[in-house]
Amino acid sequence: MQKTNGLPAAVGAWRSRAPSGPFINFFAFSGENSDKVRLTTKLKLVNPPDFTELFKIYRSMVNRLIKYALKHGDANFYRLKRENYHELRKKYPSMPSHYVHTACQLASAIMTDYFARKAQGKAKKRPQFRANSILLDDHLFKVDFENNTVRLLTNNGPVLLEFSPTKHLQKFLNGDWKLGQAFLVKKDEDVFVNVVFTKDLKIREPKTFVGVDLNENNVTLSLPNGEFVQIITHEREIRTGYFVKRRKIQKRLRAGKKRRELLAKYGKRERYRIIDIYHKIANKIVELAEKYNAGIALEDLTEIRDSIRYSAEMNGRLHRWSFRKLQSIIEYKAKLKGIKVVFVNPAHTSSLCPVCGGKLSPNGHGVLKCSNCGFEADRDAVGSLNIRLRALKMWGVSVPPESPTMKMGVGKPRRAERVCVCCLWPRSGACSSNS
How far apart are CA 411 and CA 356, in angstroms? Predict the structure, then answer.
């Protein structure tokens, strides 16, 4: 199993969400030159026993380790385990020893992230582990996929649990996927064993790139043939609609079970709609990259939320926009097809001329014009084109403004296609945006 600083690689995905966030539905992360992809599948347990005490003890162990790390300013996994292992084993004798091991891994991951954010001045409060989630290594669980059962070591001894098989699980059993670690997760009244699978991949070195500009309500692609594709996502309307619906519920019901149930219901419905859209967009982008035998270029938007300083309404909209989720879906789908994904500096991609590098000025109706060379184009097309050119430059290809003016010349580049996301793979009926 690949490790970093004593941690299994899969724990790295937990770092940004471990203190309070829910379990991530998939993992798609790796180093710049990595050829691995990690995905998870949820195994829903049938009639599971009461794991309340198990979750409570595990949270207590992780939080105890977090306090130790805070006191000593040290998040190193090996030192956390060395200094706390025997004390935790003595305090919780009913817990199998490897729960202490994984608690140290998880606490180390949480505190490594916290100390990094603290050094950048971004840590607002001390972390606390509240999630009903337990990291399991291969000593704590064993899956029998033929009989749809999981053998799990608990504080009350080993238990054999049945799970409901899914179609999604089959793709991991029929390929070259390797079983890794897992998480025991409780969500509402359901309990899942989320199993991580790893696959070794061969990533092709691209000769060109598809530039992808992610926006709040559309995704614009710059293709190697000089054309553009814009996919209208309707994400802004969907998120705003659910936001207004939640506000109405909050005003009408001040407290109580009904309020919580309604908010959870519409929050879940919103997430499912957005994720469905993201998967359709990612499939289209990967399809076009395969067609042109190209890599995919995305913007590195890691710190974008720190620079959002607009009105309260605009800030809320941009903070609800889960661009990183879409990027991670694009990334893992591309890697499964052997397509290279690179991230470029997002600074000024929509404000500098892709031909001469001059400053672009608004020319009405979302169009930008360069006063230096006369280049004129849609703002989103400019963004996606600059992203593609920056990726090519990373690969050592001569691009504007270093190279001569593009063959397309001065003028407005032609948009090849503008489609609504619900028209990519329509299930039934006509698209509402066309009716």
Answer: 13
